[in-house]
Structure formats: C-alpha cells, structure tokens
Amino acid sequence: MKKKVLITGISGMIGRAVLNRLIEHVTDFEISAIVRPGTNPDRIEHSNNIKTVSLDLSDISRIKNHLTNQVYDIIIHVGALRGGRKASQAQYYKTNVNSTEQFVEYALTNKSRLVFCSSVGVFGAIPDEMPANNETPYKEDNYYHYTKIQAEKIINRAILKGLDAVIVRPSITYGVGDYGFPFQLVKLVKHKIFPLSNKNVWMHLCNIDTITSAIINLATTKASITGKAYNISDVEPVHLRDLVNFIYRQVYNKNYPTMLTLDNNILVIGEKIARFIKNDLWTSRFELIAHSWFYQVHDAYEDLDLPAHFTVPDFKIVISDYLK
Fold first, then answer.
1. Domain residue ranges in the chain
2. Burial 47-70 (b: 16+ CB within 10 A, else e)
3. Were both Cys, which of 141, 194, 285, 289 would link to 188 (CB 3.0–4.6 Å)?
4. Which of 143, 140, 144 is nearest to 127 (CA)?
5. What CATH number has the domain spanning 3-178+204-234+296-302?
6. pLDDT digits (tens, 9 = 90+) for 287-303
7. pTM tops 0.85, yes or no
8. Which residues pair with residue 262 across a beta bridge?
C-alpha cells in the first residue's frame, strides 16, 4: 500500500524541493500538502500531482479538525513563519509552535512518523561555542529562534512518551528561487556595496540538495530514528572572503576590490544599533557577516549518507539564479 504523507511549507524553497523529490517516488506515496490560502499558484508547482489542503498554520482549530479526519503515516513539517517578517509574536507562536504541537499530538496518537524541520538558529545566530553541536545550549536571541526552541522542546517531551520523531536543523540554505541571505549576498557583491569584514569570518551554509536528501532519507527509512537531531550544512564552512571573491570572479573575472573592506568594528557597531532599535532582520544581517558561525555535521553525513557539497564552487547555482 502507498504510504500517506502530509507535508507543510511547499511554497518555500526547502518544502518545494522535498515535495519534488517525493513526487519522483509517487508510486510509493499518496501526498497531501497544507498550503496557505491565497498562495500564488506559481509557488506550488506540481500541485496537480498531490492533494492540497488550504489551511493557514496559524489557524490551530482548523488544523486540528483536519487532522481528526485524516490518516497520515508520515508528517514532514517544514512550514514556518520565518524570522524578520512583519508579524506579531502571537502569529509567530501560533504558526511555529502551536501548529507543531498539533502535528505532534496527532503523530503520537496515530503512531505516525514526524520529521520536523527546525533551524540551527536554536543555537542563536552566533552560537556560544563552535562548531555548534547537540550539546550546545539553546540561545533565545530573537523571537523566531525562541519559537523554534519551543517547538523542539514539545517534540522532545513527546518522544519520551513514544513519539516517532526526528529533528533536522538546516543552516542558511542556498538554492534556486529563494531571495534570502544568499541571494542578497550575490546582489550586494555584484553591485560592489557588500561591506566585507577585515576579520576572518567563517560561515556554514547548506546546499538545498543536502537538506532535501536528509529529510527524504529520514521520512522513508525503516531504521529507528526516534529522538535524533541533526545539524545539516555543507561538508565544511567557507571563509566569507573566499566566497565573496568567488561571487565577484563569476561576474567580473577578478577578486572583490580591497577598498571595499571595512574594519569589523564598524559592522559590530551596526549590529548594536540594530539590536538597540529591536530590528531582528538587520541585527541578524550584521551578525552573519561580522562573526563566524559553523556546526558539527559529521553525524548527519555518517548516518544519512548525504551528498557532499562544498559552498565553493556549488554556490554557482545562486549566482546563476541572480544573474538570470
């Protein structure tokens, strides 16, 4: 019999990539996807091959009612309200925490498998130790990260009661069709306005293929995965200066101008100002280019047989996407 799969977040880059991979094996799965009402149809390609359920993740009563009348063997919960959005804390909590709680309760009651896509942000934008690992303490440095931490805690408590669940934590993910940090980095470098720090800054990005493979493997494996959590990133971190030079060479065939390098203290001041005015988006932007952030990913590669990606040269996919 086909396994019945419910997936959330298919209008985003990770959810869309996971859905596309699932559809490659459509003979094995009966796929349903929760889609926010009013979502642009262009953002949910292949919707003709699946059953779509029009629900907002913040509408907890409707999610509960829907789950009550359905049978799902696997729930892949990718959808979330991302950081830096103009939304109230109540909206963040309902979307990222309360919805997860509903999927947890359903999976626990019905013996379903839950694969939850969290974020390395649970360790804070800049972890207190590096490489950050499963022993690294949670760090509630903004409300989005707080909601991901709370969701993980709900899952971990339910695991003690018998929930079959695993947590994956991708770092900032790069691929085609997303306009977040990687895309903006290319844009700023191409226009020669990226403030490159004079400090040695290391960053640990994640290729979309890596996190997609991790989620699919965990959702479909017959092996026991209960209680595990994996940090998902490229094989190794990349030096920010090397990445910026790589981007610039792809566009102009030479390295980024040294005159555009700034003293790192200037970026730290920008970070402090953004934090003072309580702008999470700009605080995060300054943090990411002024400090190093990288993760222990050995267990994920060893356990999940992940494809090996290196930010340089694989970041070409973002550069090409921007130049198009």
1. 3-178+204-234+296-302
2. eeebeeeebbbbbbeebeebbeee
3. 194
4. 140
5. 3.40.50.720
6. 999 999 999 999 999 99
7. yes
8. 197
